[in-house]
Specification:
The protein has helices spanning about 45-50, 75, 95-105, 110-120, 135-150, 165-185, 195-200, 220-225, and strands spanning about 5-15, 15-30, 30-35, 60-65, 65, 80, 155-160, 190, 205-210, 210-215. The chain is α/β, with parallel strands linked by helices and about 230 residues long. The chain has a 6-stranded mixed β-sheet, with helices on both faces. The longest helix is centred in the C-terminal third of the chain and has 18 residues, at about 165-185. Bound molecules: adenosine-5'-diphosphate (2 copies). One of its GO terms (molecular function) is ABC-type transporter activity.
Length: about 230
């Protein structure tokens, strides 16, 4: 686990639109940070810059002092969970979860052991041999989460992961995500436009507005001075 991830004046422009106007942020290992703000404020852009899916147009990102903004996504090795979970439809739950490990040439015994553990963590034991189309939305979301955490990534990036679920399931999965974060000691950056969700989940909130950090603080601090 890393000590500090640092965004230093991170900028991203799309033509004339400056989606991030020099974002400064330090994330400590083990923290759960929510990026919060209205649609269009730059949340997804920030997450994609962290993931390596979008090159920066200015600034830098360092992990324990080493620059990572010039590394491709696979070299950063961060786990990603998006709202469209993009599971492989022709693969069983177990194979979906094990895919990343098999790409890393993990041996069969180790692969089976880690897939077993991930299946257990997201409570999909009964469904592990099914295909994605046979699962509910919440179960598919659990597969997506298991697929990210099975690789034991230094950082898990989540972009509105619960927005396609109904209200009851959103609450259930919220608890689940918090539980996994705590029991695995994950470092999580979580994008949402839902203030209540951010308050419930995060140790620290980063409120973005028009591509700039407007406020950073604990849920109590941000809630007291909205
Ligand atoms: P959020 O995730 O907070 O809704 P985004 O990061 O998606 O915000 O977008 C921030 C700004 O950047 C918006 O003005 C959006 O229109 C613009 N933007 C995002 N992606 C692109 C893109 N691929 N091309 C052009 N403009 C983009
Ligand atoms: P099926 O062979 O019908 O897909 P399962 O759903 O039981 O059956 O999955 C088979 C096994 O494949 C599991 O034990 C799992 O650990 C393992 N597995 C996961 N990903 C891969 C992979 N990419 N290649 C081979 N085995 C994998």
């Amino acid at each position: 686990r890393f000590a500090e991830l640092h965004l230093d004046q991170v900028q991203r422009a799309f033509g004339d639109t400056v989606a991030l106007k020099g974002m400064d942020l330090t994330i400590k290992g083990g923290e759960f940070v929510a990026l919060l703000g209205p649609s269009g404020c730059g949340k997804s852009t920030a997450l994609n810059c962290l993931a390596g899916l979008l090159p920066l147009t200015g600034g830098r990102i360092t992990l324990d002092g080493k620059r990572i903004d010039d590394l491709p996504p696979e070299k950063r090795g961060f786990g990603m969970v998006f709202q469209n979970y993009a599971l492989f439809p022709h693969m069983s739950v177990r194979r979906n979860i094990g895919f990343g490990l098999s790409m890393r040439r993990t041996g069969k015994a180790e692969l089976n052991r880690r897939v077993d553990e991930a299946v257990r963590l997201v409570q999909l034991e009964e469904h592990q041999h099914k295909f994605p189309a046979q699962l509910s939305g919440g179960q598919q979301q659990r597969v997506a989460i298991a697929r990210a955490i099975v690789l034991e990534p230094p950082l898990v990036l989540m972009d509105e992961p619960l927005s396609n679920l109904d209200a009851a399931l959103r609450l259930e999965m919220r608890t689940e995500i918090r539980r996994l974060h705590q029991s695995l000691g994950l470092t999580t950056v979580y994008v949402t436009h839902d203030q209540e969700e951010a308050l419930a989940l995060a140790d620290r909130l980063v409120v973005l507005r028009l591509g700039e950090v407007q406020q950073v603080g604990s849920p109590e601090e941000v809630y007291a001075h909205p």
